[in-house]
Amino acid sequence: MPKQLLALERTGPKRLEIAWDLRWRIVSIKVDSQEIGRIEGGMDAVQKGQEFILPDGRVLMVQLKRNLFSANLEVKVEGKPVPGSSTDPESRWRTAYGILFFVAGLNIILGLVVWLFDITYLASIGLGVSSILFGLIFLALGYFVRQKSKAALIIAIIIFTIDAISGVFLSAAATGNPGASGIVLRSIFLVYLVRGISAISELQQEQAEPRRLHPAEKERY
Q1: What's the pLDDT tens digit per position in 130-141?
Q2: Residue ranges making up the domain that contains 62
Q3: Residue 188 shares a structural domain with residue 137
Q4: 179 with 77, same domain?
Q5: Domain contains 219
Q6: Within-domain flag for 212
Q7: What are phi and psi of 29, to 5 degrees?
Q8: How many distinct structural domains can be found in the chain?
Q9: What count of Cα atoms within 13 Å lies in the side-chain half-sphere of residue 190?
Q10: In 3D, which of 16, 6, 29 has the Cα closest to residue 84?
Q11: 99 in the same domain as 69
Q12: Model pTM?
C-alpha cells in the first residue's frame, strides 16, 4: 500500500501520513500515527477531494489531481501546500533544477562515450562533442536555477524545447522513427520545468513576506 510521509511545517517532523491502495479505493489520513479520517468511494471521491480537521484545529485538504502525464496528490493546510507535497513550491523548484542536472549529466556522459568510442549510430542522431557542450550549458543553468533564477529556467526551457524538436527530426531522419518514448519523456520534463517558474515566484514571495502563524501554531512557540 503506497504511502506518503509529510511535515505539517517546513522544518517540522513528518507527522502526516497519507496511504492509499493502487486503485485509490481508500485513502487513509493519519497524524502522529492516529487516523483522523479517510476518503472512500474510489477515484471519483479522491478527485473531488475532502477536508479533515487536524488535532490542532487547522483544516487539511486532500485531493487527487490528474493530467495527461501524471496523477498527483494535492495536500494543503489552511489552503497552503504542505511541505514536500506535489504542489509545494519548494518541491516543484527542486524537481526543476534536478531535471536540469539530470539532463546535463546524461548529455555529458553520452557525448563522452560517442567522442571516445566513435559510435556511429549515436553520432547520427546528434550526440557527440555538441552534447558535452549542451550538458555543460545545462549544468550552469541548473546552478543558477538552484539559486532561484527564473531567467535561467526560462532560458533552459527554450533551449530544451528547441533541442527536443531537433532531436525528433534527427531521430526520424536517421531511423525513420521519431521515437515516441523520447517525445513523451521530454514532454514530461518540459511540464515539470514550466511548473518550476511559478514555484520560484512563490518561494521569492514567501521570502519577501513575513510568515503569519495560525493560532494553533503560535501555541507551540
Answers
A1: 888 999 999 999
A2: 3-87
A3: yes
A4: no
A5: no
A6: no
A7: -120, 125
A8: 2
A9: 16
A10: 6
A11: no
A12: 0.76
Q: Is the pLDDT of residue 71 over 90?
A: no
Tell me whether residue 218 is in a domain. no
For residues 64-91, give the mean pLDDT.
84
211 or 193, which is more confident? 193
Sign of CA dihedral 45, 69, 205, 15: positive
Length, in residues, of the chain: 221
What pLDDT is recorded for position 217? 47
CATH of the domain at 69: 2.40.128
Residue after which a domain boundary falls, among 42, 69, 87: 87
CB-based contacts of 131, cutoff 8 Å, min separation 6: 107, 108, 110, 111, 114
Q: Please tell me whether residues 60 and 145 are part of one structural domain.
A: no
How far is C-alpha 139 from the geometric centre of its chain's CA atoms? 18
By the 8 A CB rule, do 61 and 74 touch?
Answer: yes
- Distance between CA atoms of 49 and 62, rounded to whole angstroms? 6
Beta strands in the chain (DSSP E): 3-6, 16-20, 26-31, 34-40, 50-53, 59-66, 71-77, 80-81
Alpha-carbon distance of 138 to 162, in angstroms, equals 13
Percent of the chain topping pLDDT 90: 46
- Residues 108 and 146 placed together within one structural domain of the fold: yes
Query: Which pLDDT band holds residue 120 (cuts at 50, 70, 90)?
Result: low
Assigned domain for 190 exists: yes
Pairing of strands 71-77, 26-31: unpaired
How does pLDDT run across 102-119, given as a tens digit for each residue?
Answer: 999 999 998 888 777 776
